[in-house]
Amino acid sequence: MTGGNKNDKVNMKTLAKELNLSTATISKAMRDSYDISHETKLRVMEAARRLNYVPNAYASSLRKQSSNTIAIIIPEIADSFFSQAINGIESIIAPQKYHALIYLTHDSYEREASMFNDLASGRVDGVIMSVASSTQDTGHIKKLQETGTPIVFFDRVCEDVTADKIITDDYNSAYNAAVHLLLAGCKNISLVTISGYPSILSAREQGYRDALNNNGFTTDDTRVVTCSNKYMGENVNEIKAHLTTVKPDGIIATVEQLATATYLACDELKLQIPGDVKVVCFTNQITAAILNPPLTTVLQPAYDMGKQAAEILFSRLSGRLIESEQELVMPSQLVARASTAS
């Protein structure tokens, strides 16, 4: 391309294609952003002049305005992990005189993508999110990034999106949970999990498998139960079927709702916890200590993860953080209780 045709609409995408740059880089260069080199800014301005690019003054004015609002996008609010994470986020945004819009995807990709279309209008200054389990196409996320809106992921992240990410050490946490059950005398340990969340559940499954393999036990797919992420009754039946056929003496549940399903399945089969089967679950639910018996948990630092995500987002918004995107791994804690007692 050697020049702009006056009948063509020259926009940021045109400039991006001409210069082999992202539209986000073009937008930042036009705004004289601190994190774009002087050389790149000159290239963009020269191409804009050559192609007769005329910026949309109204859209530019909207982008320059601050809404003093951030979006928190999460799969659900009932999960205690997300409730605690929101508290951590609020501890940072409230003193900054910011407001939070909380969006619930209910683990639906379609709902998540629709929310991002709403946010593209400049309604928020930044986004903190945990992706829906069914999200594979990340085009809606990347499109919002192209407007210059910073996004920080926590817990469930998109591997193919370049952004700040706050995660936990899922592999090591599952590995330690399996070793804990082995030390408690278990010899036939099963993993109860759900489909989706590849960024976290695959790591948890691998940690479980490696712990058993490294300690002289074999693992196979018959010891992994994949449940629904929506239907409690269906999950209870799946776990009951597994308990009566495979007969595990230890169970690791990878997400919070499976703790209740496992306890109900054992109760309906008249199996004693921990006498017949020992149970450990990834959960932050505060009722874990008062279940019968009290539940051994892998406790994620939900509050601190939310707090850290908000701190990073504000550092991006203020320009204090200009280096490339980072991934922070925060350790979880195994809290041993009666459900895994020897």
TrEMBL record:
InterPro entries recorded: HTH_LacI, LacI/GalR-like_sensor, Lambda_DNA-bd_dom_sf, Peripla_BP_I
Domain of life: Bacteria
Keyword Membrane tagged: no
SUPFAM superfamilies: lambda repressor-like DNA-binding domains, Periplasmic binding protein-like I
Keyword list, A-Z: DNA-binding, Transcription, Transcription regulation
GO molecular function: DNA-binding transcription factor activity; transcription cis-regulatory region binding
Alphabetized PROSITE patterns for the sequence: HTH_LACI_2
SMART domains registered for this protein in UniProt: HTH_LACI (SM00354)
HTH lacI-type domain segment(s): 10-64
Record-given protein name: Transcriptional regulator, LacI family
Species whose genome carries this gene: Mucilaginibacter gossypiicola
Upper classification of the organism: Bacteria, Pseudomonadati, Bacteroidota, Sphingobacteriia, Sphingobacteriales
